[in-house]
Amino acid sequence: MNDALSPQPTSPAGSPMPAPQAASPAEARIIAITSGKGGVGKTFVSANLAAALTRRGHRVLVLDADLGLANLDVVLNLHPKITLHDVFTGKAQLEDAVIEAPGGFSVVLAGSGMVEYSRLTPEVRSEFLNVIQTLAPRYDVVLLDTGAGISDVVLFSVSLASEVLIVATPEPTSLTDAYAAIKVLATQQKRQHVRMVVNQAARAGDGRAITSQLQQVLDRFVTTDSGRPMRLIHMGDIPADPSVRDAVMRRQLLLQQMPGCPAALAVAQLANKVESTLLKPAA
Q1: CATH architecture of 29-276
Q2: Could you say which DSSP state residue 5 is in?
Q3: Nearest by Cα to 199 from 31, 48, 67
Q4: What does the alpha-carbon distance between residue 199 and residue 11 come to, in Å, rounded to a whole number?
Q5: How far apart are CA 26 and CA 137, in angstroms?
Q6: Per residue of the chain (283 residues), what is the pLDDT tens digit?
Q7: Which residues, listed in sequence order, are joined to residue 145 by a DSSP beta bridge?
Q8: Parallel, antiparallel or unpaired: strands 106-108 and 98-100
């Protein structure tokens, strides 16, 4: 692990990111951040969680795995010269697509509106797998900001992760779609557990109650290969907070713009939970 007190990269945000010192593959933790439906704050969580983990001394890469409707660049106010589209088509090298984001973590961005990536062709599968295998050993944690739903592209992206963090809001449509996504992960990917974050929670404790309610439904209707119900692990809540909308509209990380607001503090708590349960503490 890298030293938490060592200086962060100083290249300007959006410029090519020098490759960090290689970590062993056993250290690299790949976490898919996904959702049953769009518009629940999945990319917001990915970006700000990456910033929070970086502050804790971890080498973090966020890979925009929403190959058709990418918007990580919008959230981070980045204008990349090279995207995964350029890498996949052989117009650029993968190393040139890794850039520094505000917050000090690395990102690889996908081109938006690429119809050819809306379905999982053998070529897309091969290229994306190569990206993961090449980059993951260089970092402590890789966050895959996937698309929403249960398309074959989304499910393939999620299948590359050792852990899945599903983001949902308290809205019934979001919870219904989250349940559908969790059911597919249990039946198709044989996952025994999924981790959950409830965004835009109205009151403290709402997320835990919602997770418990979903767990009851899973207990009744979804059984894993082991014969046990799918386990839903509550990782935290992010409260409804007007500062979030303000940060998104300004295309800034909430942790940088309003680090003391309730939502930012909740993201910091989420990073602490991710670190304590999934990562080795940074030295």
Answers
A1: 3-Layer(aba) Sandwich (3.40)
A2: T
A3: 48
A4: 32
A5: 8
A6: 333 223 333 344 454 544 444 344 445 799 999 999 999 999 999 999 999 999 999 999 999 998 777 789 989 999 889 998 889 888 999 999 999 999 999 999 987 656 666 678 888 899 899 999 999 999 999 999 999 999 998 999 999 999 999 999 999 999 999 999 999 999 999 999 999 999 999 998 999 999 999 999 999 999 888 888 899 999 999 999 999 999 999 999 999 999 999 999 999 999 999 999 999 776 6
A7: 33, 64
A8: antiparallel
